[in-house]
């Protein structure tokens, strides 16, 4: 298991970034790497609330963790501190033992010169996910988050 840690400056207030972390439509738009399409099946944004999301590769030659082209994961919101922190526990829906296990995703927001410093930490990444691939996917997704909230 590995971890990914990304620090990103966002030119938007913490409250706007926090809302985008907990809004199903926003999550569907930003929490998806390039070359994939997202579908939010369920999303109950409260402590203890659950969610289920599928990411499907656009190219028919890419291989998913759940089905031939899809990565589906489910999870729950463990801790929500308004405008400061979101902690989620997620797990891929797969039979592949190298992709199984609970992962923890923590988003921490702090003020940074009129904007927000976003620290995203993804702990417990399964051994079947190359750390460089996980980091690249998160970099792409967080760039989309930044663009979304900076546009207002």
Automatic annotation (TrEMBL):
Residue stretches spanning the membrane: none
Domain Activator of Hsp90 ATPase homologue 1/2-like C-terminal positions: 11-150
A Pfam family the protein falls into: AHSA1
Taxonomic superkingdom: Bacteria
InterPro entries cross-referenced by the UniProt entry: ASHA1/2-like_C, START-like_dom_sf
Similarity remark: Belongs to the AHA1 family.
Protein name: Activator of Hsp90 ATPase homologue 1/2-like C-terminal domain-containing protein
Organism, scientific name: Hyalangium minutum
Lineage summary: Bacteria, Pseudomonadati, Myxococcota, Myxococcia, Myxococcales
């Amino acid at each position: 298991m590995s971890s990914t840690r990304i620090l990103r400056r966002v030119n938007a207030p913490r409250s706007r970034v926090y809302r985008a972390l907990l809004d199903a439509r926003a999550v569907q738009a930003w929490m998806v790497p390039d070359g994939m399409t997202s579908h939010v099946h369920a999303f109950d944004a409260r402590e203890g609330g659950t969610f289920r999301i599928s990411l499907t590769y656009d190219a028919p030659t890419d291989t998913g963790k759940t089905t031939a082209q899809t990565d589906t994961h489910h999870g729950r919101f463990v801790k929500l501190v308004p405008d400061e922190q979101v902690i989620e526990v997620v797990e891929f829906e797969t039979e592949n033992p190298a992709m199984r296990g609970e992962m923890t995703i923590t988003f921490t927001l702090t003020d940074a010169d009129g904007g927000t410093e976003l620290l995203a930490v993804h702990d417990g990444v399964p051994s079947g996910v190359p750390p460089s691939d996980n980091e690249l996917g998160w970099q792409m997704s967080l760039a989309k988050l930044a663009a979304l909230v900076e546009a207002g």
